[in-house]
Protein 1
Amino acid sequence: MKICVLSRNHRLYSTQRTVEAAEQRGHEAIVVDALKCYMDITSDRPAIYYKGEKLSGIDAIIPRIGASVTRFGTAVLRQFEMMGVYPINESVAISRSRDKLRSLQLLSRKGVGLPVTGFAHSVSDTQDIIKLVGGAPLVIKLMEGTQGRGVVLAETKKAAESVIDAFHELDANFIVQEFIKEAGGSDIRCLVVGDKVVASMMRTAKEGEFRSNLHRGGEAQLVKLSKEERATAVQAAKVMGLNMAGVDILRSERGPLVMEVNSSPGLEGIEKATGKDVAGMIIAFVEKNAKPNRTKTRGKG
């Protein structure tokens, strides 16, 4: 097969490993920067051009679209879908997962465990929102934040009021969530491919930090998942319509709670922590499922 990895940087670990895994399994792999593509959207002959040449003969596409280029990146992916190319994650599913509020609403509708979450537009609702999530300490998250950016732990009610009022003043979209104390500054990243968790790791925040992201100095280690945690991760990915996803879970007194579903999960941390060939598993899934014109919007929303 000819597999296209939609990525802005061919030097990134996840991109390199995906290409390497594809080539090791006998496929041709190319890396395409979505922002350097232009498209012909004529109904009878949709096409994509990259660096002046028409892209053709591609059997499958693995999108690794950064949050900052979601809109144009998914537009390029939609064009591939119009051309009949099989995507491991479809454009609608990626857009759905990138909208934090929408994704939480969809997960809630399907009964997936979540931290208590509040959202409001008016500054006059600040006190009610704080009360809704159980008071301080609480977590405030910008809708557009990634890798722990735009996430604030407010340890007191006064601090929560100040942060919420500041975000309102900036006209920023954000959500307010309960703080899961018993998680102890740790979360679990579950890498879902198809209908199973193929790898998982526990991420623990460094001292003085509550965000466990590896980009912020968090440490990763192997973790054994419960049956309920595995089922929750798989269900969360399914609700989003994602065949490949990184599902972040908190262990709480009332069971696993989903924090986020990532449509372009990084491979470096989880491969090194688990020793598993996650990239190879992704390619194996593509081999099994890639067929022309198989694209369809999975799930609802």
Note: The longest helix spans residues 227-240.
Protein 2
Amino acid sequence: MKIAILSRNRNLYSTRRLIESAEARGHEVAVLDPLRCYMNINAKEPEIHMRGKVLSDFDAVIPRIGASITFYGTAVLRQFEMMGTYPLNESVAISRSRDKLRSLQLLSRKGIGLPVTGFASKPTDIPDLIDMVGGAPLVIKLLEGTQGIGVVLAETRKAAESVIEAFMGLNAHFMVQEYIKEAGGADLRCFVIGDKVIAAMKRQAKPGEFRSNLHRGGSATLVKLSPAERATAVKAAKTMGLNVAGVDLLRSNHGPLVMEVNSSPGLEGIETATEKDVAGQIISFIEKTAKSHKTRTKGKG
């Protein structure tokens, strides 16, 4: 097969591992910087160009699109879909998962466990918004934040009011969530491929920190999931329409709660913690499922 990887840096661990795994299985791989791609959009023969050449004949495309280039990156991926290339994750599913508020609304509609979440735009709504999520302590998250950036734990009502007022004053979009104290600064990263969790790790925040992101000094260890946690992770990925996803769960007193569904989950932390060949399993999934024009949304959305 001829596989394209949409990535801005071929030396990143995740991109490098996907290249190694695909080439080890005899596939031809090309790494394409989505920002260097440009599109010929027409009714008869849509094309993607790069450095003056037409990119064609790819059997599958693996999107590794960073949050900062979601708009342009998904446009390039959508063009591949229109050309009949099989996408590991579809453009509409990636866009859906990147919109934190929309994704939580979709998960809620499917009855999937979530932290109680509030969203408002007027300062007069702040007192009720805080009460809605159970009062302080509570978590305030910027909708555009990634890797723990823009996530604040407000330990008192006064602190919560101050942060919310500041975000509103900056015209920033944010949501307010209940703080799951019993999680103890830990979450579970469940790596879903197709209809099963193929690897999972527990991420523990460093002392004095409540964000468990590995980029913020958190540690990762192998973890055994309960059947309910596995089922929740798979259902969350399916709700987003993702074939491959990193689903982040919190362990609460009332069952597993979904924090986020990541459409481009990193491979380094999960492969190191579990010692599993996750990249190889992704390539294996593509081998089994890739077919020309096999895109549910046909480039729409």
Note: The chain has a mean pLDDT of 91.
Protein 3
Amino acid sequence: MLQPYLQAGIPEAGCDEAGRGCLAGPVFAAAVILPPDFFHHKLNDSKQLSEKSRYELRTYILENALAYAIGIYSAPEIDQVNILNASIFSMHRALEQLNLKPEHIIIDGNRFKPFHKIPFQTIIKGDSKYSSIAAASILAKTYRDDFMLQIHEEYPQYGWKKNKGYPTLDHRVAIMKYGITPYHRKSFRLLDNQLKLEF
């Protein structure tokens, strides 16, 4: 059972990101402030849900959240600042856009950098403990998936429609065969040394 908040009685934003372990595409983050009585029986960490449930929940979250926003860090930006910083800065970008200022922030994971002196708490596996972080994980994941489906049309040979930019075998084989795109993260190890391509 997810907890509605960590700090009661104040607007509390939950933050999470998606796409950190990918070879291609941006990292997406979401910040969500939910009403204290927010409830949906399916709400959980986005990784535990089917794609259909994620999109169903996204609609419900968008309709019922007090505030929500998405922050994005592109592949070239990730290469400049590294993926850990990009994950944190994309959360900052999301928080920046909220139309309700949070008085407390809870973040999935164990790393964060202060944002405008607002008190915060990092929570390991927070997306399976707190409703606002679970909601943020769903928004970050679904909006990132939408983006990957879009750029799949530009570069269909990499299979992003299916692998969403993650380091699957078919994705790595496509990189060996076709090289990289502007959406690939050059600072990541894009090829597996074990991989050999037989033509």
Note: Strands lie at 12-18, 27-33, 67-73, 104-108, 120-123.
Protein 4
Amino acid sequence: MAQGRTDGAVIGKKYRAAIAAYRRQLADGSLRLNFEQEADAYFRRCALGVWARGSGVTENHVAAYNAICSGANRPAQVLYLELCAGVASAPDFAPPGFFAQLAAADRGTGRNRADQFCELCSLLLLLFATAEDSVSAAVTDYIQHCINTLRKASGKTPPAARRTEEQEGRGSAAAQTEAQAQPEEEKEPEPPQPTLEELMAELDSLYGLEKVKKDVRSLVNLVKIRKLREEQGLPTPAMSLHLVFMGNPGTGKTTVARLLAGIYRAIGVLPKGQLVEVDRSGLVAGYVGQTALQTQKVIQSALGGVLFIDEAYALASQPGTNDFGQEAIDTILKAMEDHRKELVVIVAGYSNLMMKFIHSNPGLESRFNKYLYFDDYEGKELDQIFRGICQKNGYTIQPELSEKLPAFFDQLYENRDANFGNARDVRNLFEKLVAIQSDRVAQLENPSREDLMAITLADFEQAEEEEA
């Protein structure tokens, strides 16, 4: 497959963006920590496996290998001859150590973090392949083998993948017969879908967002009346259900998108009502043609529900650059036209950047004409969010701290800057306080139930000192 070679530094930049995007989806602290600790070393081994099937090591491979680092991790410092030796002795592909934990955590929860890791791995393997001038059939076959191996390890190997492995000689005729003789696994019954009333009640229970709630209710009423008019044979003017969410991080955009997906299903607009969340790294690949394929895969997973594109403005190409973001936009616009009755797209991001993004393309302007504005949370709302997080997680706020919090959150709101994270900052504060409280309680000889639950003013003051 022809392509232009990707510079090693660019590969590193794209790698870090993909890792950061996946890490944001891991709310579980243990999963996130294990992923952060193992990811760079694991994907460096993956890169060796890809390059072992290529046309030879160059200085661009060295630059790419040394750029595979994320977060505060130290970059590699491999030299050319060292990398040649590493490629020559590249280990066989195997799932990372934390993958079994991911798959186990997904079972029975309806989550798909293992599947999302498979998508991440596919994206990064293709990215590593672009260190060369062209991607050979041997490399693409190897990448497909790697993804099939991951899916098999997660217990979700597709039939096509099983056939491919057997055709490649990794399964004997006896193994094929045994596989055919095994009965299909019984599927767990799907949990009942929430009703419209339950979803609207959950929307109403969110802190703040009064204008957003009003806009959502108005939109729901508009759609319901439209359907009633259709049933009565009355004219129904053209209507777009695609939306633009504008606001700062941590203002509830993803939560509202999830509720809207369920609401659209409950009133019969969408058949499934799932939410598929993605950003640029999940849509844009490393060479011409692959972005359209990657974007199509995401769209297929979203059919019947809502495709939520966070930081969508990052797809817009900068003047004078040769970027594949426009390829993703064109693919999404076509899908919106081809799947009018089974796909709703919501794009989200900072208000000023989203306006520039929408106005950058006539196709975007014509399909996105409804805007929901998510204001920053005020001090009293931040206070409510913090208390709600504590209650949900079984922590109590001691009276001295409880008295201090309203003024603290008022000040946090008044002094906010462009990096203000809203509810995200509140969550970070809670997690820091839990860590400090754990260190304190661990020193007690026989902590009581109350000790295990209490967050004190001293805990809070220590958190403030560490932030200073």
Note: The radius of gyration is 25 Å.
